[in-house]
Design a protein that fits this description.
CATH architecture: 7 Propeller
Helix content: under 10%
CATH class: Mainly Beta
Number of strands: 18
Shape: globular
CATH topology: Methylamine Dehydrogenase, Chain H
Strand content: over 45%
Low-confidence stretches: 1-13, 22-37
CATH superfamily: YVTN repeat-like/Quinoprotein amine dehydrogenase
Largest sheet: 4 strands, antiparallel
Distance between the termini: 43 Å
Number of domains: 1
Mean pLDDT: 86
Order of helices and strands: EEEEEEEEEEEEEEEEEE
Length: 209
């Protein structure tokens, strides 16, 4: 049976990767592992995600209707491992050094950091139900998380595990969140209103839409 591509990424090397897998957190709240969720929080919203490691040796794929993610060895061209334990995995992003990657789950209300070598979860950040798109700073110390249920974006310190700031003023920010090349501006898509919001990362203030 033919499968439609759910996500693609084009890298500088010219390689095209295609996948065919079928309560907001408060500022300065300490991260802890949440109680297991038995049902989806926003399962009617479906999306997929694909992330490639900086060295282009690993591909990690998710589809929110599945409770697992798949890790592929791109050098061997084969599935390396399926990681279970998710409910509605939303977005995947690699750390700049490629040693780990982050997976958001809107039903669990978490972002999990997974070691790229062992593929074990090394840290769970509680970010609130509705956690969706993610963006990571170049130094890997700041993680931005969209929360489509709370209409917020959380700025998380990945070293301390603290939510440094919760920015309000969005309209269902889902998967789309990107940092500018210089890291000074964060761009966030709003599902409602069809707008892109710009945030000054030095002040954590919205500067335009």
């Amino acid at each position: 049976m033919n499968k439609s591509p759910l996500a693609l990424i084009i890298y500088m090397s010219g390689t095209l990767f295609v996948s065919t897998l079928s309560a907001p957190v408060l500022a300065n709240e300490k991260v802890s592992t949440p109680v297991a969720v038995q049902k989806t929080f926003d399962g009617s919203i479906q999306n997929n995600s694909l992330a490639i490691s900086p060295d282009e040796k690993l591909a990690v794929v998710s589809y929110s209707a599945r409770t697992d993610i798949a890790v592929y060895d791109l050098e061997k061209g084969e599935l390396r491992q399926v990681i279970n334990g998710f409910i509605t995995p939303r977005n995947i992003v690699f750390a700049p050094d490629g040693n780990s990657f982050y997976v958001s789950d809107s039903s669990k209300g978490t972002v999990e950091r997974i070691d790229s070598a062992s593929l074990n979860v090394t840290h769970t950040f509680s970010t609130g139900p509705g956690s969706f798109g993610t963006a990571l700073s170049k130094d890997g110390k700041t993680l931005w998380i969209n929360n489509q249920a709370g209409n917020t974006v959380t700025r998380l310190n990945t070293d301390s595990g603290l939510a440094e700031t919760v920015i309000t003023g969005f309209s269902q920010p889902r998967q789309g969140v990107k940092l500018s090349p210089d890291g000074r501006t964060l761009y966030v898509t709003n599902f409602l209103g069809d707008k892109i919001t710009a945030v000054d990362t030095s002040t954590n203030k919205i500067t335009g839409k």
